[in-house]
Amino acid sequence: MSDRVKTVHDPVHGGIRVDGFFLEIMDRHEMQRLRGVKQLGMGNFVFPGANHTRFEHCLGTYYLAGRMAKAIGLSEEDSLAVRTAAMMHDICHAPFSHTLEAVMEDATGLDHMELARNLICGKGKVFRDRDADLLAGSGSIADILESNGIDPVEVCDLIAYPESTERDLDNLTLDGMDHFPSKDYIHQIIHGPVDADQMDYLMRDAHYTGVVMGNIDVDRLLSTMRVVNDRICIERGGAPAAEGLMVSRALMYSSVYYHQTVRVLERMVTKAVLSSDLDLSEIYLWDDSDMTQALLSAGGSSSRLMRLVQNRMFYKKALEVSAGDVDEELSRILMKYKDHRKRIELEQHIADKAGLDVSEVVLEMTSSANLGSAKIKIGKTDVSIVGEDGKVRPLTRTSPIAKALQSRDSFSWSMLVACPEDKKEAVARATSKVLGL
């Protein structure tokens, strides 16, 4: 392993030490593309400071994964694997991040995590044709990992949501501390109730949006973190810090991630892509500027929509279904359109009824849980707390704050339809007729 070391100055975590083969990975073209992919998609049109990228988020996740690995006493081999996975966990995010995720899945047949598996292992194209003169013969990331004794398959499994071991919390005790049957706790560093990914994005997104809701007591969480029978848990003394993380997560989702204007903007960009004849089979190799220029050059409604966005001439809300108005019958109707393709069909139906072009109607929904009778639950699972008696219990069982957050309706709206301002009345009427509102 190389002795080279660099310190990257990060506004969230301070100095991040990057050494050895991690430097090679960081400087690879696959990672450098992420400098051109904004972390919050179109969020900077509402939060002007939100110009941070997936690249810095990946570095932050790598840093926190290393701290977590040290906190729970991982071996050097396991620590290297999970830090590698953390650095590359978003390596195949589409342009504008989550905005075009469904479009990318349709175009490639794979989500960004499975695409990452292929990219890392050198299956298929790993750079665009225009860069062949620079990158031909550069090999794959898997070559770097193997030459440093790291199993690429293990790293990819950590990125691509391997099946998690589910245990009955009431039956977990400290008796099995020395026996970890599946090492699922390693996977939980990337995908878990208290993981490096969400800790970084909550802190980073709060920092750049200026929203004061993403503060997390990382030091306290790490100092009280331990493994109990394959599960990352927090000791009782760290429960307030775990509550703080849950509060931050809930408020950031309702205030930033599901901000109505941002969601309308993202849908306008999605509509621009769907209106084009672009070949999207290599979309995972594009960055934001690539997509923007391609849409502007496509002409027609694709160019118009992208120019509207660039000039902040957004579609206006024509109709909103509030979360409190979703009864059992309306829930049944809306759930039919959660699928990406079904939603496109619904937009077409509304446009036809209103006598408009489909490019003038955008429809957005919140999560499936928010459309149903059950309240939405933000996050993967409940935080596990280990008490002085050695038993592990969900935080919601002992914390009124956590219990309230898990049942909190995090979104005031369930569905909204937007269009050009002078078409609002026609679109509202058409939507009401189509959905029987």
Automatic annotation (TrEMBL):
Superkingdom per UniProt: Archaea
Any GO MF annotation of the entry: dGTPase activity
InterPro entries: dGTPase-like, HD/PDEase_dom, HD_assoc_2, HD_domain
A Pfam family recorded for this sequence: HD_assoc_2
Keyword Hydrolase carried by entry: yes
Annotated HD/PDEase domain residues: 50-211
Any one GO biological process: dGTP catabolic process
Keyword Hydrolase: yes
Key words of the record: Hydrolase
Name listed for the protein in its UniProt record: Putative dNTP triphosphohydrolase, Archaeal subgroup
Organism annotation: Methanomethylophilus alvi (strain Mx1201)
